[in-house]
Request: fold
Amino acid sequence: MAPLEWALLILITFFSFVFVLLMGPSRRFRDGPIGKLYRFLTHDASVTFRTHARRLLGTGNYEYLARIYDWVLFGRNPLAQTLYLTLLTIGVVIFLMYGWPEVPGPYVHWFNVYTIPPTILFTYAAFARACFSDPGVIDETNVQKACEVYDYDHLIFHPKDCATCKIQKPARSKHCSLCGSCIAKHDHHCIWVNNCVGQKNHKYFLLFLFATIFIAFYATVVIVLIFLGKIHEQGLHNFHYTNQAGRTYKVPMYKVFIYMLHKNVLLGSLAILAVLTGMIVLFFTLGHVLTILNGITTNEGLKWEDIDGLIRQGRLIRNKPKDDPLARQAIIVDKVDPTNADQSDPVQSLEELENIYDRGVWGNLMDLLFPQPI
Ligand SMILES: [Zn+2]
Ligand SMILES: [Zn+2]
Reply:
């Protein structure tokens, strides 16, 4: 295979792998082949690997390898973070070596000379901000204040203490086992920034996503325009060939582009990497923004899925309101044993329940951009 085909194969394999790891646990995919592949990669393959490794390596070596394996897959490690930084830097270096000398060009406007460097610097800055910002770690000093931000909905958040931190768990918070602390308005732990995403840094995480999408599509457009310039300079857009029967054909544009990719393998691979990255991150970001506008964190989204499952099984039952002044919902819902005949009045659908954290699109956006300080 030619270098270009190899590059394409590696890129597609890599992105398929990332897609399976990202989307495997989601409700949409978890019952299908992507969910099965996810479970195989994260569980079955691990079990098989462990069984064979112990037999082959002996217990001592196996324990050592198993620790590395667990650290790579389940520990707080900078591997994905380093991968992002490496890919970004390789992309920037390739562009500076082979793309930058063509700016400005026949199709690349001069203003790009002034917009490309800030775009690169901004992407690094947004990444660093997302990596090193405080997501909203809760400790004894701020737990009281953190508890005042959101009320308990008595549905997915109940007043209780964190078993590890031994302090009260504010509504919407979650203990992150990787970071080792409770995080206010916990969204998720992101391996790409090796940090939790929570109340205090959610906006910086979004900025990082937008910066990545922007630089990816911007790089793609500039490289395509550079190629177009080269094509016109070399007259390839008017290139004709004559077949054996003596008929003359104009070479189609897509073939000219494939030729350009072969002639500029590194810059071409960068464009393909950039457009694939841009599309995957855009896909993820659209879903993420939608949950934000609905007043739901990623963590709460998973809990709502559990609630939905309980409703379908008829296991979500209304109880009489208990003596809790914080209970804003007219009902308090408990997960109960369906065989208990004493319980009645099951919740029929999600519409009967209220997400008390949903402040409307504008309110949710303001809550994200200007969170209440803790
Ligand atoms: Zn905790
Ligand atoms: Zn975390």
